[in-house]
Specification:
Layout (H helix, E strand, L loop, with lengths): L2 H9 L4 E12 L3 E4 L5 E9 L1 E6 L5 E4 L3 E4 L5 E4 L7 E2 H4 L9 E6 L4 E11 L15 E3 L1 H6 L3 H14 L4 H23 L7 H4 L3 H12 L7 H7 L4 H12 L3 H19 L4 H7 L5 H12 L3 H17 L1
Parallel strand pairs: 1-9, 2-8
Antiparallel strand pairs: 1-10, 2-7, 3-6, 3-10, 4-5, 4-7, 6-11
Helix pairs in contact: 1-7, 4-5, 8-9, 11-12
Length: about 325
């Protein structure tokens, strides 16, 4: 499996289980504060005008029309016309409730105007996804980069249109579009990485570790050992284990288990396979052993996880 296929494999398991969107029209002076939320990623798109993003521990970031910024781990942050402007909590400004697709905010004074689409992603089974855990606190895609991908701008405009429309089914539409938007954010971030970058995404570019990741993703059901993986990529056991852990951020077999659980979670959500069939497909000899490993990794038994996932799908369809 090529390294690009590993990324595709992981992206296919990332699903936005719920999403919250709104449109902001502001004029200076203005400021919006967004509380920390470890469960949800945040994003903002500057449709027109300019503003500043302030994240604790980082220098303020200037944003202008066309820029897209994402905070994959939901760090607390503020948006404002200029650094130092008074800040109002976002929760006080959203009058339609925190998860209404139609949420719209108008605020500020008589100064320079800005229009934003702002929102959040809630990921299904975030804990075991190798991609989400290695994304940085803040990702900025400049407008120049966004415009180089011809379908991104129409997607953002479509989200903005749906967020403002109030039409039936708007929540479902923007949730599906969120998958596309998140994938583009990841692709943009990957394109910005320098050669030899560390982390899971950087590991994809390493000829031997990237190949090992491909083997794991292609055949998670095999009884992988550190020795067998090292042999397949022509490395010594110790050198392979050391480089894998340094680049990926965890030992080889821990990654194997994590990916098996992520794959199993996807099968539980999206297929009608029995637990025994899923157990076999992800490398477990018995349903009992699989169930024990899944509960330890995910926090719920496979059957309960599947029922909860189906209930979520039904609720989303009714929204």
């Amino acid at each position: 499996m090529a390294t690009t296929d590993v990324l595709t494999d992981v992206l296919e398991t990332v699903r936005v289980g719920a999403a919250c969107y709104g449109r902001v029209e502001a004029a200076a002076p203005w400021g919006i504060g967004v509380e920390a939320d470890e469960e949800d990623a945040k994003f903002h798109v500057v449709l027109s005008g300019e503003c500043w993003l302030d994240v604790a521990g980082q220098d303020p970031i200037h944003l202008q029309g066309g820029d897209l910024v994402a905070l994959p781990h939901g760090h607390a942050h503020s948006l404002m016309d200029v650094p130092g402007s008074p800040i109002r909590p976002l929760s006080e400004l959203i009058t339609d409730g925190p998860c209404k697709c139609q949420a719209s905010i108008s605020m500020g004074g008589d100064g320079a105007a800005v229009t934003l689409v702002t929102g959040s992603f809630h990921f299904e089974d975030r804990r075991n996804n190798p991609l989400l855990s290695v994304l940085p606190p803040v990702i900025v895609l400049p407008g120049e980069m966004s415009r180089n991908v011809h379908w991104l701008e129409p997607t953002l405009k479509f989200i903005a249109c749906e967020a403002a429309s109030g039409r039936p089914g708007a929540q479902t539409v923007v949730s599906r579009l969120a998958d596309v938007l998140f994938i583009q954010i990841v692709r943009g971030y990957l394109a910005s990485l320098p050669p030899g970058a560390s982390g899971w995404l950087g590991a994809l570019g390493d000829s031997q570790i990237g190949q090992a990741l491909g083997l794991i993703h292609q055949s998670p059901e095999l009884d992988w050992t550190v020795q067998s993986l090292a042999a397949r990529v022509a490395m010594s056991r110790s050198a392979f284990a050391s480089r894998f852990a340094r680049l990926v951020g965890e030992p080889p077999l821990a990654y194997v288990t994590r990916w098996r659980m992520q794959k199993a979670a996807g099968l539980l959500r999206q297929s009608s396979s029995t637990l025994a069939e899923i157990a076999e497909r992800v490398g477990y000899d018995s349903e009992a052993a699989f169930s024990k490993a899944f509960k330890r990794a995910v926090g719920s038994a496979p059957g309960a996880y599947r029922r909860a996932a189906k209930a979520t799908v039904i609720a989303d369809a009714a929204a």
